[in-house]
Write a structure and sequence with these properties.
alpha/beta; six-stranded mixed β-sheet; 19% strand
């Protein structure tokens, strides 16, 4: 039940006389505690934090001296006591609160410096169930929320990165902090506990295999503030979840200006696609524009893979993102930098390649250390008006699918390899998706159309345009295979692919008119296989 307030307005400046420090992350702790002590602030602390402060030669009072109660149950119970929470929650200007504090010997706490057990880190390392539970902090979140609620009188600090700003504020105001700073820190504190609880609830949902819990929380930590979002009139920021999946969120940016909103979106699409191709199977390259591939290929080297990918659509590749599944070497770097490219992302890069890229000051180079696992479980989230759509990541792999030959003619060995290649790519093309492929390279891609036949036509038209640019006698779709991310609802899309020169088709199947589509394939003498798996990507 809400409590009405008769309180006087919060004071602007509150002098820090007593601070409670209880931290798991001890980064910057001693320097901060030393500065507080030098300002005449009394230090209260617990457990390992108290021992670290004491070892540094600073005066510190154990919380058990304040509560009159020892730590018990392996430290699980130490700050959950009125002596602590009364000191954090007391309204200093309220006579009843002041009387209660005096009666029960409760001392006011003006500053709480608290960070939490490293649950997120433990979870990311794949700890077992019991270890994960032990790393769920109870006292920390309770104290953070108490101090943040009473920010009219108490300053709460949950992030070591804020130590410097707090000290600057104290020095600027003779040992006091203004209300505006306390409000901002309180807001940050509640965001921290919300993120912590989101991580715990998300872990429970995974551990207990709850695909759709009644309440679902998501959280992220700000990594970058963007100049703008998708368009200049939109504000944006990049938040990371802590998931240790190789990719744009965890990559090292070696050079170039900060990535934009669209750069991050496109680079993620590029690296997720190229990660479908295991490095052990040979080099692969994906070139992305507006989150869709404009060329994908495998080759005997990174250079060959890039050049084969570029053939598909050289025009669209201008200003695109290039992703490799193998190390960026000097030969590939020279070729890629011949045209304007926004980002190159790869597991690693040689020193020579990095030097070549460095000559292009606006070109970003990112290394990830590894490929993303296309078979790994995970969640994807998309916002809609008033809600969130949450689903499992599409981690279906064509190599693990039971391909069913449905035509009179079976695909040849080379065709089958290209069919699998094309279906891998189609998984990462916006629906409706059509992908023509030949000799381990895309030769025509149709993406994001309202009808499948339109995607088939656009992909074929792009192949014709590419042939004209390259001076080829005919488009590379002649003798190609074609992949569709979903079934052909009518035979018209298939007939368009046949007209473009496709000799084999891979698609999920499952249409009411499958018989009609199969009959059209048989009449044309082409091979068709069904995967039974759809790859819609909206």
């Amino acid at each position: 039940m809400a409590v009405s307030s008769k309180r006087v307005p919060a004071p602007d400046l509150v002098t820090i006389r007593r601070a409670l420090l209880s931290v798991s992350d001890k980064q910057g702790l001693i320097e901060f505690a030393t500065a507080l002590s030098n300002l005449g602030v009394e230090l209260l602390s617990t457990g390992g934090t108290a021992r670290a402060i004491e070892a540094a030669g600073l005066p510190v009072r154990d919380v058990s001296d304040v509560t009159g109660f020892p730590e018990i149950m392996d430290g699980r119970v130490k700050t959950l006591h009125p002596g602590v929470h009364g000191g954090l929650l007391a309204i200093r200007d309220d006579a009843e609160h002041a009387e209660a504090m005096e009666k029960h010997g409760i001392v006011p706490i003006d500053l709480a410096v608290i960070n939490l057990y490293p649950f997120e880190e433990v979870r990311a390392k794949g700890a077992d169930y019991e270890t994960s539970v032990e790393n769920i902090d109870i006292g920390g979140p309770a104290m953070i929320r108490a101090a943040a609620k009473n920010h009219a009188y108490v300053t709460i600090v949950t992030d070591p990165e804020d130590y410097g700003a707090v000290l600057e504020g104290l020095e600027a105001h003779s040992g006091a902090l203004p209300l505006a700073a306390r409000k901002e820190l309180a807001a940050k504190a509640y965001a921290r506990t919300a993120a912590y609880d989101a991580a715990i609830s998300g872990w429970f949902a995974e551990a207990l295999d709850l695909p759709a819990p009644r309440h679902r929380s998501f959280a992220g930590k700000l990594k970058t503030v963007m100049r703008y979002g998708e368009n200049p009139h939109q504000q944006a920021g990049f938040y990371v979840t802590g998931e240790h999946r190789p990719g744009v969120a965890t990559a090292t940016l070696h050079q170039g200006k900060a990535l934009s909103y669209n750069n991050i979106n496109d680079t993620d699409a590029a690296f997720e696609l190229v990660s479908e191709f295991a490095a052990a199977s040979g080099p692969a390259c994906a070139i992305i524009k507006h989150a869709n591939p404009c060329g994908v290929a495998v080759g005997s080297s990174a250079l060959e893979a890039y050049r084969k990918a570029l053939v598909c659509d050289q025009t669209s590749a201008f200003g695109g993102i290039v992703a490799l599944n193998t190390e960026l070497d000097a030969e590939a770097a020279r070729a890629i930098t011949e045209i304007f490219t926004e980002v190159i992302i790869a597991p690693s890069a040689t020193e020579e390649a990095m030097a070549i890229v460095a000559a292009k000051k606006n070109l970003r180079l990112m290394t990830t250390g590894a490929l993303a696992d296309p078979a790994a479980a995970g969640m994807t989230v998309r916002s809609v008006a008033g809600g969130l759509l949450v689903q499992n990541r599409d981690n279906a792999l064509v190599d693990q699918m039971d391909l069913k030959i449905v035509t009179k003619r079976a695909p040849g060995e080379t065709e089958l390899a290209d069919l699998r290649f094309a279906f891998r790519v189609a998984k990462h093309v916006k629906s409706n998706a059509i992908v023509y492929a030949k000799h381990g390279a895309t030769v025509g891609i149709g993406a994001g159309q309202m009808s499948r036949v339109d995607s088939a036509r656009i992909a074929a038209r792009k192949a014709i345009d590419a042939a004209e640019v390259l001076g080829l006698p005919e488009p590379l779709t002649r003798g190609s295979v074609v992949a569709s991310d979903a079934f052909f609802p009518f035979a018209d899309g298939l007939l368009t692919a046949i007209e473009a020169g496709a000799t084999a088709v891979i698609q999920p199947g499952g249409s009411m008119r499958d018989d009609e589509v199969i009959a059209a394939a048989d009449e044309a003498g082409i091979a068709m296989v069904f995967t039974g798996v759809r790859h819609f990507r909206h």
